[in-house]
Amino acid sequence: MSDGAAVDMKQRSSKHLLRDKSSQEAKYEDLPTSGNGRHPARRMATAPTFIVSMVLISFTIAGIGAYGLASRRKRLPEITEVKYKKDRCNLDSYKSNIHELNLRGCGLTELPFSIFRFKKLRKLDASDNHLASFPTWISQSSSTPLDSISQNPFTCLEIIFLSNNDFTSIPDSLSSFSSLRVLAFRYNHITNLNVDVLPASSLEWLILTGNKIDFIPNSISRLTKLRKLMLSHNRISSLPKTFRNLQSLEMIRIANNALQTLPSLLGTMPKLAWIAAGGNPFCQRLIENRHSTKPVVSRSELDFGKQVGKGSGGITYKAVWRGNVVAVKIWNNAGQFSDGSPDGEIKTHSFLHHPNVAGSIGSLSPPDRGLILRWLDNARQLGEAPSLTSVTQDLPPVSINFPSMSPKNLIRTALTLAKALEYMHSTGFAHGDIYLHNTLEAINKNGSFTAFVSDLGAAFPYDKVKDAWMEKVEILAFCHLLADLATFSVSTASTPARSPAASRLLGFATNCLDHQHSPIANRPRFATILRQLEELL
What we know:
Layout: H1 14-17, H2 21-28, H3 54-67, E1 100-102, E2 123-125, E3 159-161, E4 182-184, E5 205-207, E6 228-230, E7 251-253, E8 274-276, H4 281-287, E9 296-297, E10 302-311, E11 314-321, E12 324-331, H5 342-351, E13 360-364, E14 370-374, E15 379-381, H6 410-426, E16 429-430, E17 439-443, E18 449-453, E19 460-461, H7 469-491, H8 500-513, H9 526-534
Parallel strand pairs: 1-2, 2-3, 3-4, 4-5, 5-6, 6-7, 7-8, 9-13
Antiparallel strand pairs: 10-11, 11-12, 12-14, 13-14, 15-17, 16-19, 17-18
Helix pairs in contact: 3-7, 6-7, 6-9, 7-8
């Protein structure tokens, strides 16, 4: 995040938005668009082109492995970006040995047969087209025209993006895509979730945001390898009992559906650490009698300056309000994203007041939808968002030498974050996205620093009595964060390898992560975690 960054900005500068092409598409899954196309999310934001040096990535990953945490969640080699081609929609312009193929926005109504020329293809992006089905030749295995093909490239594909097309169901032929790990059908017209045609033996990440799904079949339990499931902005009113059989699931996004209650079976899933469920009817009932004390401000009261960020459906500006420099985040159009909606985020901000929660100081009056945020100079994220390869695991930050990660401050930083999260749960709000990439370090004028829990886009209210298990789900997310905090402190050169502080925190995090092997009811609450971290000082 560049100097002068505002708190709560999920937006990145060009330097921070991408690591590789696969990270780019992961960001796109959260980007809304204007209503210019046939779908509410048709026009995609322009992606930056800066790619982080592979030398830096190799260094940071090597540092993590050396410190012994690589076995916790295995890192795999990233899929690197192919060079941009002037005529990228012309398949004849590509060499046959490419690993990635970008056909985004090429006006396709059918996948071209010449794709079979690319026998090493691992990633296919055919989003923003007019596809409604797969051609019959994909599923043909022995008859013409496939009998002359020595290798079917679809058996090697690991990542397929088919977002912003015209599919009404999942193509049957996907069952033969035996290497498929990541599949995106964001903003199509899917009503029937035919789980039986999905490759259960390999699928780890399924993106179905923004469709018309109102029913999850019992057969969802087939997807035993699934780690990340994106179902926000559909019409789902319940989850089947068999859902609890998804024992590998780590993250679910089910915001802005038709849930009357927070599904209690989510509190029985051992690896589940990240839940986004805002914008459902049960959330509205929980906050309808709450009243915010934060001001609602007219746009005319603000003196707007330059744009400083863009992403997640909004634009952030530097501005002056009542003589103070602030950041103003304004959502455009529908502003939908996988974690929730602008209205949900604005309401969440209006109820939270804590010095280490990067909350708003006010909101914009209708018809505008926006937040007024404190302006922070020299604010940086303590991690980078997961890629399509790491799935749910943060990547090391691009910057180095974070004061918050120094041996002197490392455990105090963990304590600060725990206090902020304990506060949120004491008020009946789950964060939904506890990660180091949603944690900020801001350098104050006197040279000291302040750590913030930021990005409340996935936060939502819950019933602290009936759904007390929700806090214990987020304990597991915090355990992952602590493990990354200890590990990244070494890999970013903020802490000497084997420093006592990093060793103590890593040992604590490792023991904390063992809670996923025991009943969720046995996990500690944040108040207990606070006491245990204080003992590490």
